[in-house]
Design brief:
- By secondary structure, this protein is mainly α.
- It has a domain of 155 residues.
- Helix content is 59%, strand content 0%.
- The chain contains 14 helices and no strands.
- The radius of gyration is 44 Å and the shape is elongated.
- Keywords: Coiled coil.
Length: 535
């Protein structure tokens, strides 16, 4: 019995490099074995260096999952090709659209919010977990219901108070932790408002609720009135608040509140990427307002409100003068440069995405070729061991003379040597493909790292561009306000000049009126007799 093996020819011209496996020249006996038994030779492995990806970045994930399946379907004579399950099919089944993940997260957050509200209503016997006077402050900040973070921290405060045996209503009584917190927030807010502004309503913000919870968590079992609350590192002043702000409460950190006129001395944020990563990393941005603000001035809590407001106004004047000295043209040039670098970084990121997609498709194809090669080698070794067994039955020798038998056995020896040579070449080819697969893995890892750095560069550049745009807008607004101020001063100066002229004219007229009796010699009696008026 003679063994014949016909290998399937490649069916995918688009990715032919994935099935080209060996550059080893076969032995002469292998050539005769190939001609006699129709063995298809394996084409040497070829790669192209000028491959350019045409995959759109928006379709990268989907294309990478099914690129090889669409381009190179495998035909197996023993199985139906349409029912053949591939690794890519499994990837398709596991793929979940990002919108579904986001919807699940939103549903989970909403369910937690409903659970927290039900817990608060049960333990507080209704809506008393936020008093009516504090609930009115929501409308002033453009809110209808408390924020979810406020609800979260109020629940934590409630659980902590119940675990310590504290009555919940005492938290909002005079001297309670929550009431004390919003009252302290009132003092901080009222000092930053001009006198002509109306008094803000009470408001429980996320910052206040979080601070109360942290203070209660870090304090031993104490009555509610003993929990301190302060927004700064300085100890709270024991002195009473000024009369104007005794019942004023608001939180300047809320996004709907008025802008805080005081510039804090914040520490600089860390750079999100190494200093030597790319050209975007050497772009530094210093906010003009931040650089001009200086250290936060320490104002005694016992100071009068008028003194505090005067200090704030003087600080704003200094800030305005500093902003007027900023070179807005330089800010615009820096902004344009950062925007251009953002575009370049986005293009580089898209290029990396294309390389990742192509490399992943190549990896999937190489893995499949290795699998097919392994199966083929196993089948060939099994058949060679069976057909050319030394002590096995040889049905083909029956009825042959000695000469024919010698020729047949010689041919069998040639076929056995050629088969073994082919199997050895196939194994070396498989090992080469495995090495190529490891190379592709390293390329994918390197490109993914570069893509992550490009994303970090884009994020940092966008933040810098936003800061520069905000600085430009601030400087432009300051200059417009200064122009209006100068125009108003010109009008005021003109009115003052007219007032001075009118004052001088009045004084001149008054002097002329005083000199009238001297001109007539002071004889008022004769003058009165002449005009018929008695003295």
């Amino acid at each position: 019995m003679l063994y014949r093996r016909i290998l399937p020819k490649p069916q995918c011209p688009g990715v032919a490099s994935l099935t080209e496996v060996s550059n080893i020249q076969p032995h002469e006996t292998f050539i005769s074995y190939q001609d006699q038994f129709s063995v298809v030779p394996v084409i040497p492995h070829q790669t192209t260096d000028n491959t350019q990806s045409t995959v759109r970045p928006s379709l990268i994930s989907e294309n990478c999952l099914g690129l090889f399946d669409r381009q190179c379907p495998i035909q197996n004579p023993n199985r139906n090709a349409t029912s053949l399950k591939t690794p890519c099919a499994g990837l398709h089944n596991k793929y979940i659209h990002p919108s579904s993940i986001l919807q699940r997260k939103r549903d989970k957050r909403h369910a937690k919010l409903i659970n927290d509200l039900a817990y608060l209503k049960t333990n507080w016997s209704g809506q008393d977990w936020i008093p009516a006077d504090v609930r009115k402050g929501l409308r002033q900040h453009g809110l209808q219901d408390p924020a979810k973070n406020v609800i979260k921290y109020v629940r934590r405060i409630t659980e902590l108070a119940l675990s310590r045996g504290i009555e919940l209503k005492t938290l909002w009584n005079d001297g309670g932790a929550l009431r004390k917190a919003v009252t302290s927030e009132a003092a901080a807010k009222a000092t930053k408002l001009p006198p002509q502004r109306g008094l803000p309503l009470l408001h429980l913000s996320t910052k206040v609720a979080k601070t109360v919870y942290e203070n209660m968590s870090s304090t031993d079992r104490q009555p509610p009135s003993a929990f301190p609350y302060t927004l700064s590192n300085e100890p709270a002043s024991p002195s009473p608040l000024p009369e104007r702000i005794q019942s004023v409460v608001s939180f300047d950190g809320d996004p709907f509140a008025e802008n805080n006129l005081e510039i804090e001395d914040n520490s600089p944020s860390p750079t999100p990427h190494p200093a030597d990563s790319s050209t975007l990393s050497d772009q530094s941005y210093n906010d003009p307002a931040e650089s001009l603000s200086g250290q936060k001035r320490a104002i005694s809590p016992d100071a009068d409100v008028t003194t505090i407001l005067d200090a704030k106004r003087q600080h704003l004047v200094n800030m305005q003068n500093g902003l007027l000295a900023v070179d807005i043209d330089d800010l615009r040039r820096r902004h344009d440069k950062v925007v251009a670098e953002i575009d370049n970084a986005v293009v580089a990121k898209k290029r990396k995405d294309g390389i990742v997609c192509t490399s992943q498709a190549t990896k999937e194809g190489l893995e499949r070729v290795v699998k097919l090669k392994s199966d083929e080698i196993a089948i060939l070794e099994k058949h060679l061991a069976t057909v050319f067994a030394v002590d096995g039955p040889r049905d083909s020798d029956i009825g042959l003379d000695y000469g024919s038998l010698s020729i047949t056995r010689a041919l069998d020896d040639v076929m056995l040597a050629a088969g073994r040579q082919y199997i050895a070449d196939a194994k070396r080819s498989k090992n080469m493909i495995i090495n190529d697969l490891e190379t592709v893995d390293r390329v994918i890892f390197s490109v993914l790292a570069e893509r992550d750095r490009a994303e970090e560069d884009v994020a940092a550049a966008r933040e810098t561009a936003n800061n520069l745009a905000g600085a430009i807008k601030t400087v432009e607004s300051t200059r417009k306000a200064e122009a209006k101020k100068l125009k108003a001063l010109a009008v005021i100066t003109e009115m003052q000049n007219r007032l001075e002229q009118a004052k001088k004219a009045f004084e001149e007229t008054d002097r002329e009126a005083e000199n009238v009796p001297n001109d007539v010699g002071g004889d008022w009696e004769s003058i009165l007799r002449i005009i018929g008026t008695e003295v």
